[in-house]
Amino acid sequence: MLKLLKYDWKRNSTIYYATVAVLLIVQASLYIGSRKGWLDVLVIGLSIMAFMAASLVLFLQACSTFNHHLKSFNRRLLPLKPLQEIAAVLLLNIIYTLTIMLIGAIVAAVMIPAMDNIDFSYIIDNWLKPAPVLSILGYSLWSSVNLLIWIMLAIAIARSFKVKHRFWIGLAAFIAIQSIIAYLSYLLFGPSGEAAFGFIQFRVTASAEGEAIAMMPTSWFNPLSGPFIMEIVTTVAALYAIVYLMNRKVEL
Amino acid sequence: MSQILKFHNVGKSYGVKKALDDVSFEITAGKIVGLLGSNGSGKSTLMKIAAGVAQPTAGHVEVTGMLVGSKTKGLTSFMPDSPLTEDWMRVADALSFYNDFYADFDAGKARDMLDFMKLSGRDRVSALSKGMKERLQLTLVLSRNAKLYMLDEPIGGVDPVARGKILDAIVEYYNEDSSILVSTHLLNDIERIFDEVVLIREGKLLLHEDVESIRLNRGKSIDELFKEVYAEC
Amino acid sequence: MRGSVTIEFDNNLPIYLQIMNFMKKEIIVGNLKAGDKIPSVRELASELQINPNTVQRTFQELEREMIVETKRGLGRYVTSEESKIMEIKKEMAGELLDRFIQGMQELGFASDDIVSIVSEAVRDTVGNKE
């Protein structure tokens, strides 16, 4: 599996380095801009957008890599089990996500102290603690992997057909499956917005200016929460489905 | 005589269309077998199923007695009529790819073959000419010490000189423990390479015979037999 | 056999028989002398672009007819018996003669005529060569 990762990595290396380089350049420019007096809110907004764009590019690369696994002869002929191929792509995505997180942490550490106009003390006091930080990072990583697995399932479904419009079949399948799961989740756990983010509490406070909603981290992320267990179960089912499709239905 | 490839009543349907219909045959070790048929007769489908990149809708296939799966992929070396390399690769990457994933890959043999073809490890795969790319593929496939080699139309669209080199390579890599299945719709010189031929038409197996027996008993060349059989289409 | 070997093959007839005839000729004519080593199966198959099993069959037949012998660990050699080589020569000549005589008889020539026509033809052929 690590051997596969090596080739997947090499295959995408140009895009990876380009994306990272552009992201760093943009962040550096924004930092300089902020020092020159640009609006803090603007800088933060653009900075976050840049991160989101970079994450999207790399995430799409991971998806496209899996698609490549399924449609090229040199990959399909390899004496490997489907789970190994899936794992390699997930690992690739994890590395990409960690890269973005690391850059994010560095940028935050450099930029936030430099911003004099915004009071970050609320966030720093309540959120900059091990429990919330690790929970958020860990859960974000999990979400990224989770989403990738569902997209890989959609890709596998699409590639099980030989018709021209199989992309739309895959898309339809993805939407259908996600809707069904969301509905099941609603039936089981109710409409609470904190369904999976069990470690964030919303508090509404009244003040002179009106109402404000505050998000308070309560504790460590709870892996035994109903919604999370359901996520794990459905994700494992998705993996089984992908393996089945790769063994029996995906053809060249 | 050990079994290398065996098709048991294999069928492959795409909806109503039958690409393969009740195909059964066996290839034993130490044979070079020609898989003959016109375009669309089911040759490629047959090879893809044996290689494990397509699934039969009926029957099953065994390679060295094992059902086709990830294990048999490690014993089968298949050259399809599509690329086996990725555009980002250099020749050296293509070689190390094969070396990393196939235990039976002989890197030394591969390097010798590449030297002979004047290909450098640093050459970019995307910059190679069509002919060079094909030779690279052949190198990768034949540098494995596999049990079953399958070449899908290796001589189609290739100039006579290259054709000769491919036939040379096939004869050279022949050994008694493995077998080579070569599909083609062109005969002439290549028919002297074959021990046996399997004739496929519209997904059905028409004939599987020893080549010299055909010449002896029917007084025909394989080329003539082929033309006769397909003239009825 | 020195240098590269070329045989004009007829794909309608068994290849191994054609190789056998070719090799017998080489021996009779003297390109392959008594006791000479002959190429290995692999060498010949590669040279002629022929299936190795076909070459193997050829060699086995030649061995069966005792034209060729295997020396353990050393390879295959043309027989050292000159008498055997003479025998093949006569055999091949015999086959040619049988076919010729039959052909001439089908054309309606009587035995005496055949002999005189042959004498004349040989004289002419030799004369043309000088």
In summary, what is this structure?
The complex is a heterotrimer of chains A (252), B (233) and C (130). Chain B has 233 residues and is an alpha/beta fold.
What is the arithmetic mean of pLDDT of chain A?
A: 85
Spatially, the strands of the biggest sheet of chain C line up as 1-2
CATH superfamily of the largest domain in chain C: Winged helix-like DNA-binding domain superfamily/Winged helix DNA-binding domain
**How many β-strands of chain C, per DSSP?**
2
Distance between the termini of chain C: 29 Å
Structure description:
The complex is a heterotrimer of chains A (252), B (233) and C (130). Chain A folds into 2 domains: 1-118, no CATH class; 129-252, no CATH class. Chain A has 8 helices and 2 strands; from the N terminus they run H-H-H-H-H-H-H-E-E-H. In chain A, a hairpin with a 2-residue loop joins strand 1 and strand 2. Chain A is mainly alpha-helical. The longest helix of chain A is centred in the first third of the chain and has 34 residues, at 2-35. Helix content of chain A is 74%, strand content 6%. Chain B has helices spanning 43-51, 70-73, 91-101, 107-116, 130-142, 160-173, 211-218, 222-231, and strands at residues 3-14, 17-28, 32-36, 58-63, 66-67, 76-79, 148-152, 179-184, 196-201, 204-210. In chain B, a hairpin with a 2-residue loop joins strand 1 (3-14) and strand 2 (17-28). Chain B has 233 residues and is of the alpha/beta class. In chain B, helix 5 (130-142) runs parallel beside helix 6 (160-173). Chain B starts with a strand and ends with a helix. Chain C has helices spanning 15-29, 41-48, 52-64, 82-107, 111-129; strands at 68-71, 75-78. Chain C has a two-stranded antiparallel sheet with strand order 1-2. In chain C, a hairpin with a 3-residue loop joins strand 1 (68-71) and strand 2. In chain C, helix 1 packs across helix 3 (52-64). Chains in contact: A-B, B-C. Chains A and B meet through helix 1 and helix 3 of A and helix 2 and helix 3 of B.
